[in-house]
Amino acid sequence: MNHKPIEGFSKLPKQGKIDWLVNEYLEGNQEYQNILKQYWNEDADLQKLHEEFSENTISNFYMPYGIAPNFLIDGKLLALPMAVEESSVVAAASKAAKFWIDKGGFKTTIINTEKLGHTHFMFSVEPHKLLHFFNFSLKKKLLESTEEITANMRKRGGGILNISLVDKTAEMPNYYQLKASFDTVDSMGANFINSCLEQFGKTLRQEVATSEDFTQEEKNSLQIVMNILSNFTPDCIVRAEVSCKMEDLKDDSGISPEEFAAKFKQAVTIAEIEPYRATTHNKGVMNGVDAVVIATGNDFRATEACAHAYAAKDGQYRSLTHCTTDNGVFRFWIDLPISVGVVGGLTNLHPLVKFSLALLGKPSAQELMSILAVSGLAQNFAALRSLVTTGIQKGHMKMHLLNILNQLGATEEEKQHFVTYFKDKTVSHHEVINEFNRMREK
Predict the structure, then answer these.
(1) Average pLDDT for 185-202
(2) Is residue 118 annotated as part of the catalytic site, yes or no?
(3) Residue 71 has pLDDT above 60, yes or no
(4) What is the residue-wise DSSP string for 199-264?
(5) pTM of the model
(6) What are the protein's UniProt keywords (predicted)?
């Protein structure tokens, strides 16, 4: 090995962790210490709060926090907070919002809010015997055993919706599930769901041990493998859509509304049937979704996993968005499975998350679901609009121009020159370098 392993790293103070890293991996270079420290917050209490969000924290990692205004969602005008590092995401969302604001804006519908979790267990027993035991004894005991855990959630209108026994023995010998659905109201509910599931596992073990339905050999075969929520929530879903008369699809690209609608629909259909395109298509959707998910303190990895699993639910990976152009009406929509919360987790701790939720009018979890679906739909609309008209690079590279100039160390005066220079040209990295060198040689 080229470095020595370390024992007790987590027990070192923050400075001790930094000293070890810099000395062991970075040749003691003080510049790296300075990089870490310049991102510490001057407010010691706020810095400590950030450090306690996760383990072994030595600094903060900044992301741009932008605002996409003019989103008319279900009759309310909102400005969306977006935490994202990719050029053109905020600009594209804003442009789409502005396009639809005078056409009725975005409409949303909460289709369902069920979340799921499973107790996975192995049991060498005939399925019909286990099903009888579940229906006539176990299900009631499972609900009774979690009454204390679910009390507060039930007071808020949520709780356990249903529990079912799933026979998976055809796919894996002796494998069964207790599948439970939950309503967690305004919380994402991961801790609540997992606590209920862990109690299910304990109750299952206890009830099997004392039941007269099973032989001792069968009882001994019971193995609780794991109790865990699922991030695939196909029954926690929201629809967001836009629509207008075909003639209202006026575009400054020079093509007619009818041609625009036809090409747009073709682009969506390609993403519905071609997985290679669908992957990039849905990545664009999640550009919009994740940026707001992060800004509101929710788990973007969970939203990503769920969305992509849903996109492949029928056996082929497909577009999350859909389009029709029937009877002279253009309609574009998304059905997005997403599980988020507005209480618990970072929502009560992170100052910028509090700001984001206040900016959005302190939405309920369902209202936040709607906002996220709209953000994804808007981002996808903007991307497809560019693709079928001017091409994606024209707008994207103009947004990327400042990144290139910053890498070159351009002055503010030089940056302004480049904005003017590329006003009627397509930005390319090669052309920026050539023009930059030409300027510096003068």
Answers:
(1) 96
(2) no
(3) yes
(4) HHHHHHHHHHHH-SSS-HHHHHH-EEEEEEE-S--TTEEEEEEEEEEGGG---TTS--HHHHHHHH
(5) 0.88
(6) NAD, Oxidoreductase
